[in-house]
Amino acid sequence: MTIDQTAATPNEPSLSKGERTRKQIIGAALELFSDQGYHGTSMRQVADLAGIALGGIYNHFDNKEAIFTAVTLESHPIHTLLPALEAESGDTLEEAIHQSAERMYETLSQREDFLNLILIETLEFNGKHFPDIFAQIFPRAVSFSKRLTEKPGDLREDIPLPVMVATFIGMIFSFFLFQRLFGTQVDLGEPKSLLRQIMEIYLHGIQPQIGEGDRR
Fold it and tell me: What sign for the dihedral angle of Cα 43, 45, 51, 52?
């Protein structure tokens, strides 16, 4: 078992010894929570994997839930989605939507701990920390969506921008979760192609496109 280096950077020179130790603890906890669940992980296990004495862990965190909260707010894989969104470079609105969706899905697929941590938060904490995650990521997601409005392409003016953002992110998450939970049971084709179809539904709906003269 190795500590996730995205969460733990003990040799980063700008950090103090205490800050490096704290990151070690969060990195160890992230891995253990993902592998074993919250209730299946002990403080001693976190300390052992972080390479510190059990008593030393309490210099940084009062209890296990405080560690989980830190994992959620600082090192949860959901935070890796924001750079994926903000890295899009499509020339048109439609290109940007498809590119952003692909980047988000690829990022999620590289984080095996994502689904486990979402389930822990849902089942063991009843979504207690979701509002804090939302508060961190949603403003940047809205900022991303505002950039989209500056690209060539048409957007409906009767749908608020936050609703468009929430729907977009929700569709990607739902697709990812469906693939993880039921992908071996239902053959819907190659994921990248399927994701593109889903984004076509997001952009254009499921009804055939018809001309204005054909509308009733």
Answer: positive
- List Cβ neighbours of 168 (8 Å cut-off, separation of 6 or more): 97, 100, 101, 145, 202
pTM: 0.70
In terms of C-beta density within 10 A (0-12 exposed, 13-18 middle, 19 or more buried), how is residue 14 classed? exposed
What does the pLDDT look like over 71-87, one tens digit per residue? Answer: 988 877 777 777 777 77
Q: Which CATH architecture has domain 77-208?
A: Orthogonal Bundle (1.10)
The token pair at 202 is 């997001």
3-state secondary structure of 111: coil
- Multiple choice CATH, 17-73, 3.40.50.2300, 1.10.10.60, 2.30.40.10, 3.40.190.10: 1.10.10.60
